[in-house]
Amino acid sequence: MPPETNIGASTNWYIASVRPRGHTEARAEDLAEILIEDIEVTIARTNVRAGVIGELGITEPLDPRGKKGVAAGAARNVLGVCRAFSSGPSVNDKIRGH
Fold first, then answer.
1. Most-buried pick from 27, 35, 49, 97 (CB within 10 A)?
2. Cα 79 to Cα 61: distance, rounded to the nearest angstrom
C-alpha cells in the first residue's frame, strides 16, 4: 500500500455476546484507557490508529457490560473523535414509537 493511503479504523466493543474475555471484570476507566491507546498510539501494536470510537453496540435491556462499554466510550473527549452507536431492533422500535 502506498504511504499516502489513509485507512479509516475504529475501536470498540460491540454487543455483549462478542466482547473479549476480561471485559466483564474490567472497570469502565480501564476500558477507556484501551480505547484511548488505540487512538493516540496504535491498535494492538499495529501501525494503525483509530479515528472513531464505535460501533458501541446497544441492546435492550442494556446489560451492565453494555453500560460499561458506553461509559468507556464516553469517558473522555479523546482528541475530539466521534462515537458511533449501533442499536438492536427492540431499541430501534422504541425510537420509532412502535
1. 35
2. 31
Per-residue pLDDT of the chain (98 residues; tens, 9 = 90+): 566 677 778 888 776 677 777 877 888 888 888 888 888 888 888 888 888 888 877 777 777 777 787 788 776 665 678 888 777 666 556 656 65
* Domain presence at residue 68: no
Whether residue 12 is contained in a domain is answered as yes
Query: How many domains are there within the chain?
Result: 1
Dist. CA 98–CA 90, nearest whole Å: 9
- Kindly state whether residue 19 falls inside one of the protein's structural domains: yes
Residue with cell 425510537: 95
